[in-house]
Amino acid sequence: MDINDSLAVTLAVIMLIAVIGGVVSLVRAGTGLGWPLLRYFMLVIALPLAGILALRDATLTAGALAIAGAAVGYVFGKRDGREA
Predict the structure, then answer these.
(1) pLDDT digits (tens, 9 = 90+) for 52-80
(2) Is residue 8 within 8 Å of 49, Cβ to Cβ?
């Protein structure tokens, strides 16, 4: 196992821990699935995914990152219903 494999596994574990932490905080708070939690999940998933794809030298890296970037842009561009 070389350093790229180690970093990819580390990023995947960080992503998994962050998603589990988000779900646990959602259950403890007793709130619904709102835009702040969706924004958190998009960052938690998109940033490590970009790192993993860059480390693995995937053939479709640009396409996958474009889709992830579009999803992040949509989630952060969406208003959550509160007055600014």
Answers:
(1) 777 776 666 777 778 778 888 888 887 76
(2) no
Sequence-separated (6 or more) residues with CB below 8 Å from residue 55: 4, 7, 8, 11
Q: How far apart (Å, rounded) are the C-alpha atoms in residues 81 and 51?
A: 32
CA-based diameter of the chain, in Å?
Answer: 51
pTM over 0.85: no
Cβ-in-10-Å burial (0-12, 13-18, 19+) of 53 comes to: buried
Gap between the Cα atoms of 12 and 51, Å rounded: 9
